[in-house]
């Protein structure tokens, strides 16, 4: 059972969803601006526009609130906007995947969430593990399953589809992700993303295409 602040207020069921969202949005701003250590429950309550008592009704401490933000980031903001169709040709599907993947990891504002997760993962490994499994490993697994389908269709020749999926994912990030995540450059413009992904597709098919 979650422990609450002595001055809590009762939450009505119909208020729960919108109030929780309000708290998460306020907390996200505070964590992104101040980091995990600099954030306080008092500041989060102020930015979210709720009392500390209301805040404690939903989250018993800062760690649980941060974990909830990572969960929200994972489920709602880390969603890859691409459908893997095993019948589609590899060149088209890989190009669409690469552009969608960069749109997720290099989206404006998204870098702050990734940096914060990376900074806290050593102290809260379950948070880092959850983010990695759902956003990174989950995406690799979906791409690997697609590649396996194209291997079976004789379009690709790959011994280890999981390794190949990881390689392609990293090739798409080349020159784009690291400058962005370390604040050396803003979110990459579409023409840069298209150029880098197109190069990644060519390299991938040169290595794994049956016509190589």
UniProtKB/TrEMBL annotation:
Keywords: DNA-binding, Transcription, Transcription regulation. The keyword Nucleotide-binding does not apply. GO terms for molecular function: DNA-binding transcription factor activity; transcription cis-regulatory region binding. The keyword Transcription regulation applies. Residues 40-59 bind DNA. Residues 17-77 form the HTH tetR-type domain. PANTHER family: HTH-TYPE TRANSCRIPTIONAL DUAL REGULATOR CECR (PTHR30055:SF146), HTH-TYPE TRANSCRIPTIONAL REGULATOR RUTR (PTHR30055). This is Putative transcriptional regulator, TetR family.
């Amino acid at each position: 059972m979650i422990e609450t602040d002595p001055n809590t207020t009762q939450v009505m069921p119909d208020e729960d969803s919108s109030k929780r969202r309000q708290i998460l949005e306020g907390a996200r701003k505070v964590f992104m601006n101040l980091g995990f250590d600099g954030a306080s429950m008092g500041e989060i309550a102020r930015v979210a526009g709720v009392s500390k008592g209301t805040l404690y009704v939903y989250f018993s401490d800062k760690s649980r609130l941060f974990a909830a933000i990572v969960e929200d980031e994972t489920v709602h903001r880390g969603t890859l906007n691409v459908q893997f169709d095993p019948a589609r040709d590899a060149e088209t599907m890989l190009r669409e995947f690469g552009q969608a993947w960069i749109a997720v990891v290099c989206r404006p504002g998204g870098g702050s969430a990734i940096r914060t997760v990376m900074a806290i993962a050593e102290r809260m490994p379950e948070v880092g593990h959850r983010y990695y499994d759902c956003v990174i490993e989950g995406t690799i697994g979906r791409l690997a399953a697609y590649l396996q389908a194209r291997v079976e269709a004789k379009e690709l020749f790959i011994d280890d589809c999981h390794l190949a999926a990881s390689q392609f994912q990293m090739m798409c990030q080349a020159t784009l992700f690291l400058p962005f995540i370390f604040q050396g450059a803003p979110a990459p413009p579409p023409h840069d993303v298209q150029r880098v992904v197109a190069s990644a597709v060519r390299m991938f098919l040169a290595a794994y295409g049956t016509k190589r």
